[in-house]
């Protein structure tokens, strides 16, 4: 039988990262030495079996996603990831599951050069909670409250394929196996836009930002509310995922505007910064698309490519009403 401490040592404790002045796993607390003059950005995200992922989900993909959704929050603030903690409730100490999970999680951690510095492990229904720590220069963090009338609204990458895959799994729509598999890559292994977020913050290009986890319309709504502004969004300009792009216009509009699980960035920037935004995005190989503009009049107006108003009822995801 694998004990709690064997489990931590075998699957989560790794050789110390030479470049970081921290005390890692093994004591009552981890110690982080902040870079002088930097602010610490902190965020937690939890994944619960049956709520955020299907029972029996592949462990390596879960390891990736649990860390990716947290890194996406740091990206949305423009912070540089430094380390993370992992609180894990497991129904049993299954070696295959632990090996897969830690492999998927550490592959992404290594890609971002960050260290697992501690956590907690207990028996219980499968629940994964990661807390990430990042650094950002004072005054540079991308807040939800900074959008101003006249700003452009931008989206990184593409939207909607994760929602399309979910529809395929739930048999809400018919999909061939190859399309489902391709779309599901976006659902299972989202790409946190860390490099783009950091660059937007460092260059002072974005006036506000949020990562899209519950659907664009709802998440953009948080920016509008906290900034005290409104917006017009061109639904036909929204960049649809590679699989969703083959479906009809109604589905494209619905799933790009209110799909969820995209983990792309939605950010605003002054129109005068357009060329700089495009250059910054190109320098980190992250496509960005301009999809609307911020206006003084409150509310979100949805329009088509010709600028005609669309009257769509789009709901963003809410755990207590869904
Ligand atoms: P405590 O009893 O003080 O809560 P634990 O016995 O739970 O400490 O954990 C022992 C050490 O292992 C601590 O340093 C803790 O941060 C670390 N740890 C526990 N679970 C995990 C995990 N899932 N991932 C990483 N580190 C963990
Ligand atoms: Mg403990």
TrEMBL record:
Q: Where do the annotations place substrate binding? A: 52, 261, 317
Q: Which residues bind Mg(2+) 2?
A: 45, 73
InterPro entries per record: PurM-like_C_dom, PurM-like_C_sf, PurM-like_N, PurM-like_N_sf, ThiL-like
Pathway listed: Cofactor biosynthesis; thiamine diphosphate biosynthesis; thiamine diphosphate from thiamine phosphate: step 1/1
Q: Which residues form the PurM-like C-terminal domain?
A: 186-303
Q: Quick check: keyword Methyltransferase in the entry?
A: no
The first-level EC class reads transferase
Amino-acid positions noted as binding Mg(2+) 4 in the UniProt annotation, renumbered to this chain: 28, 43, 73
Keywords, comma-separated and alphabetical: ATP-binding, Kinase, Magnesium, Metal-binding, Nucleotide-binding, Thiamine biosynthesis, Transferase
Q: What else is known?
A: Reaction mechanism of ThiL seems to utilize a direct, inline transfer of the gamma-phosphate of ATP to TMP rather than a phosphorylated enzyme intermediate.
What is this protein called in UniProt? Thiamine-monophosphate kinase
Name of the gene: thiL
């Amino acid at each position: 039988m694998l004990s709690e401490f064997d489990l931590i040592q075998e699957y989560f404790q790794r050789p110390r990262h030479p470049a970081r002045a921290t005390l890692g796993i093994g004591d009552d607390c981890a110690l982080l030495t902040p870079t002088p003059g930097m602010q610490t950005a902190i965020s937690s995200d939890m994944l619960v079996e049956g709520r955020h992922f299907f029972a029996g989900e592949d462990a390596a993909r879960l390891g990736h996603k649990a860390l990716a959704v947290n890194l996406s929050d740091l990206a949305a603030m423009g912070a540089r990831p430094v380390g993370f903690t992992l609180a894990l409730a497991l129904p049993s100490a299954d070696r295959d599951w632990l090996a897969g999970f830690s492999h998927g999680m550490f592959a992404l951690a290594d890609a971002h050069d960050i260290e697992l510095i501690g956590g907690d492990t207990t028996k219980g229904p499968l629940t994964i909670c990661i807390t990430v720590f990042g650094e950002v220069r004072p005054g540079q963090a991308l807040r939800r409250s900074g959008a101003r009338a006249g700003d452009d609204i931008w989206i990184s990458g593409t939207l909607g394929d994760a929602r399309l895959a979910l529809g395929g799994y739930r048999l809400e729509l018919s999909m061939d196996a190859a399309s489902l598999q391709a779309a599901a890559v976006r659902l299972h292994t989202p790409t946190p836009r860390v490099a783009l977020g950091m660059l937007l913050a460092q260059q002072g290009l974005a006036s506000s930002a949020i990562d899209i986890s519950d659907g664009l319309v709802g998440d953009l709504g948080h920016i509008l509310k906290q900034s005290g502004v409104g917006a017009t969004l061109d639904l036909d300009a929204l960049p649809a995922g590679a699989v969703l792009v083959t479906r009809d216009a109604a589905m494209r509009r619905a799933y790009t505007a209110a799909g969820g699980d995209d983990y792309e960035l939605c950010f605003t920037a002054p129109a005068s910064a357009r060329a700089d935004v495009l250059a910054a995005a190109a320098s980190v190989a992250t496509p960005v698309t301009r999809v609307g503009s911020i206006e003084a009049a409150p509310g979100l107006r949805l329009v088509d490519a010709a600028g005609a108003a669309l009257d769509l009822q789009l709901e963003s995801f809410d755990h207590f009403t869904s």
